[in-house]
Design a protein that fits this description.
The chain contains 15 helices and 17 strands. It is α+β, with helices and mostly antiparallel strands and 591 residues long. The chain has 2 domains: 274 residues, no CATH class; 222 residues, Histidine kinase-like ATPase, C-terminal domain (Heat Shock Protein 90, 2-Layer Sandwich), CATH 3.30.565.10. The strands form 4 sheets. It has a 5-stranded antiparallel β-sheet with strand order 2-1-5-4-3. A hairpin with a 7-residue loop joins strand 3 and strand 4. Helix 8 packs antiparallel against helix 9. The longest helix is centred in the first third of the chain and has 65 residues. It is a multi-pass membrane protein.
Length: 591
């Protein structure tokens, strides 16, 4: 039977798993896109917000510095200050003390107005070699110091405001617009310590995520009071190796973390406000939510795959078992059964399928047995019709030999003929030993040899094999076929060989002749008919014998035809040794 090719089909497991993956792919892509957009927008907002805050802080510093410088300029024009540096013409000591007092009071008043930005003011009189300051300590007049520090720009050097002695200073000399001493110059100085910057940095840090500092190349940076020294040190090393602009932002890795470093220059002080913002801490919740979503998506995929596997196990595999069972039945294997351990809805179908297959097998066996019985009856009827012709020929041979006074030939023919008919007329048992079958074949071939002198035969069957029970007349059709259709068809042939072999739980018998035989096409057709059902136009003898062998010894037994080594036709009979016979043999061997 030609097998029909099934079209390619995707299993339910692959379908559902593919649908789950296809469902998750757009969700994952859309989330990744939205997450990237959100991260980009937040990063942009962080950059803009950070640079704006730094610019605002820088403007605050500039505003306070400008206020200080305006006061210094205005204060230098104050009459009392001018009088302090004027000619040494005083009405009395009281007037001198009053002038000094007014100068100190105005400096203290200005310092009190901007108490969040304390500034030291000092008035230097070059003419009198004297200095006045609003500090608690007296300030000595040092002309060399003034010549060194008078400049249009603010400088950062040692002072008295901070514990480390560093302060920002600016000196204004009333010398007709020239920043230098002329011999009778009036100099007003202003200075403030790093603590002023630290106060602003602390206030700035309270409202942000960064760790700001005040930086100038070659100077020790001014840190906020809660700054991380390690981070400040690493950031300073990074800035020392950069070409700084008035305003810039860069993403830098510091202490194995990503930081957004924003930088704004203070024009008056020529220092930089620097704010490193830890991006990982700010964007960390977004990254955590993203990773949590991907983890949830992965778990959903695993759960979906698990349900697909459960569906495959509980639905598709039972369906596949049913399909395989139906295919076996379609090919004629009615012994197919489905074994199921699961207790589900398919168990009922499996039981019904097994019942159906068993009923069909029993029905086929019954029909086959009835057909074999009918064919057996037909065979016996035909044998009864054929045997008389065979008997007439043998009797004719005996008459001729008697007329020729060959008494030995007559006796031999009579003995062989009586033994042959005695065996074939005993129909009380369906089986017989292989030894008796071989004896029948020997009698038959002896008769044919006496009738046809060209026939020569040999029989080689092991004694162990001769004890086995086989269906009666199992070998007779093949030997008759070798005589009638083999050696009798050609005058140059006449050899018949019967060989038996036992091994591996199987018995084999080959019947060979040196007749004309069959070509490959006819041999293939003959072998195919043995595997198919009985047809009306085919001979009954060989097919019936094959069915008797299979019914007697099982489906692993067979009958095949091929070309013989002798040049003619070969019949090969193979049958499996019954289990009870093998068990008896194994017991005897063990004993």
């Amino acid at each position: 039977m030609k097998k029909t090719r099934q079209p390619f089909q995707i299993s339910l497991f692959n379908k559902y798993l593919g649908l789950i993956v296809l469902l998750f792919i757009p969700i994952g892509l859309l989330f990744a896109y939205s997450n990237n957009v959100a991260t980009s927008v937040i990063g942009k907002e962080i950059r803009n917000s950070n640079i704006k805050q730094l610019s605002f802080l820088s403007s605050q510093i500039e505003s306070r510095i400008n206020q200080t410088m305006d006061f210094v300029f205005t204060f230098s024009k104050d009459p009392n200050v001018q009088k302090y540096n004027g000619l040494n013409i005083w009405d009395d000591n009281y007037d001198w003390m009053q002038t000094r007092y007014m100068i100190l009071e105005k400096m203290a008043l200005q310092s009190g107005v901007v108490n969040i930005w304390p500034v030291e003011f000092t008035v230097y009189s070059q003419q009198h070699k004297e200095a006045l300051s609003n500090t608690s300590t007296s300030v000595a007049y040092d002309e060399d110091y003034l010549n060194l520090h008078i400049s249009k720009n603010w400088t950062y050097s040692e002072g008295t405001q901070d514990s480390d002695g560093m302060a920002f200073r600016w000196f204004y000399a009333d010398s007709l617009g020239q920043q230098k001493l002329t011999g009778s110059s009036l100099v007003v100085g202003a200075s403030f310590g790093a603590s002023n910057i630290q106060n602003l940095l602390d206030t700035y840090k309270e409202g942000g995520q960064g760790d700001p500092l005040f930086y100038a190349p070659g100077q020790k940076p001014i840190l906020n009071r809660s700054a991380s020294p390690e981070l400040a040190e690493e950031l300073t090393r990074y800035l020392d190796g950069q070409t700084l602009q008035d305003s810039m932002q860069k993403t830098v890795e510091l202490n194995e973390q990503r930081y957004l470093v924003s930088l704004v220059k203070s024009p008056q002080l020529d220092w930089y406000l620097v704010d490193p913002v830890p991006l990982d801490q700010i964007l960390g919740p977004i990254s955590s939510s993203r990773n949590l979503f991907y983890l949830s998506l992965g778990l959903l995929l695993v759960i979906g795959a698990f349900f697909s596997i459960v569906l495959y196990r509980d639905v598709q595999r039972p369906i596949l078992k049913l399909i395989r069972g139906l295919k076996k039945v379609q090919l004629g294997d009615f012994s197919a059964r489905i074994h199921a351990k699961a207790n589900s809805e398919f168990t009922f179908l499996f039981y019904r399928f097994n019942d159906m297959s068993a009923q069909i097998e029993a029905l086929i066996d019954n029909v086959l047995k009835e057909r074999l019985i009918a064919q057996e009856a037909t065979m016996k009827q035909l044998q009864a019709q054929i045997n008389p012709h065979f008997l007439y020929n043998c009797l004719g041979y005996m008459i001729n030999m008697a007329q020729m006074k060959d008494e030995e030939a007559v006796v031999k023919m009579g003995y062989s003929l009586s033994s042959y008919y005695r065996y074939i007329t005993r129909m009380e048992k369906p089986t017989s030993s292989l030894h008796d079958e071989i004896q029948l074949i020997a009698n038959y071939l002896d008769i044919q040899t006496m009738r046809n002198g060209r026939i020569h035969y040999s029989i080689d069957i092991p004694e162990e094999m001769r004890k086995h029970q086989v269906p009666r007349l199992m070998l007779q059709p093949f030997v008759e076929n070798a005589v009638i259709h083999g050696v009798s068809k050609s005058y140059s042939s006449g050899k018949i060989r019967i060989v038996g072999h036992i091994a591996g739980g199987f018995c084999r018998i080959w019947v060979d002749d040196d007749g004309p035989g069959l070509n490959d096409e006819k041999l293939d057709m003959l072998n195919s008919t043995m595997k198919g059902p009985m047809q009306e136009d085919m001979g009954y003898g060989l097919w019936n014998t094959n069915q008797r062998i299979i019914n007697s010894f099982g489906s692993r037994s067979s009958l095949t035809f091929s070309a013989s080594e002798l040049g003619g036709f070969r019949s090969e009979i193979v049958w499996e040794i019954p289990k009870d016979v093998k068990d008896v043999k194994d017991t005897k061997d063990a004993s």
